[in-house]
Amino acid sequence: MAKSRTKRKSSDITVNDIKAVADAASNYVKHWTKHEAQRLAKETLVIIPASWGLQVGTYAVKDTNQGWRVENGSGELINNFTSKRSAVAWCIMYQTNRYGISERLLKQDNKLSKLSQDHVNYMYSKQQARKKRDYFAVDVVEARLIESSSHLEVAKNDLEKTLNSAKYLKGIWEKPL
Is 146 within a domain? Predict the structure, then answer.
């Protein structure tokens, strides 16, 4: 028989040793990933899609049946919005210290929500008045409905203008490396 020239000794590594090393590596990667995600969320404005909605920096934007709900990291309600675009824009503006435009966005979105609800209520009132054949009430509600429609269009346009102006603000999207 030939003599081994490398003189290797068999290693005494067991399956349990390999499992322990693999578990330690897995825990390290999990901890590092969580830590880096938290660090990135604090340092830079990151928008992360999730199964429940969006994570916009430190705020969560969640879908409800009536609109979009903005919550802080603790899950406390901050604001409700009629559209996802308004909610995300508010989060971005607020976290980049653009409090004036974020407040304007919030006010305009609340106004749009109120006017939309008024419009729906007037439509329902008009329908009920027609069923009862109360034509005086139909005329009154029709006048309110026309006025509500014009205010609703103005509110939509104002909100759209604010969202477009927020999109082009300097210093938000460009970050020096």
Answer: yes
The Cα 158–Cα 154 span in angstroms is 6
**Contact between 47 and 55 (Cβ < 8 Å):** yes
Per-residue three-class SS string for 84-104: HHHHHHHHHHHHCCCHHHHHH
Counting the structural domains of the chain, the total is 1
Integer Cα distance of 102 and 100 in angstroms: 5
Strands 47-50 and 77-81: unpaired
> Which run of H or E residues covers position 39?
helix 15-43
- Kindly report the number of other CB atoms within 10 A of residue 2's CB atom: 4
- Contact yes or no for 98/112 (Cβ under 8 A): no
Structural domain for 118, as ranges: 24-167
Comparing CA positions, the residue from 56, 111, 63 lying closest to residue 88 is 56
pLDDT tier at 176, thresholds 50, 70, 90: very low
86 found inside a domain: yes
Residue with tokens 């969006």: 54
- What predicted TM-score, i.e. pTM, was given to this entire model? 0.70
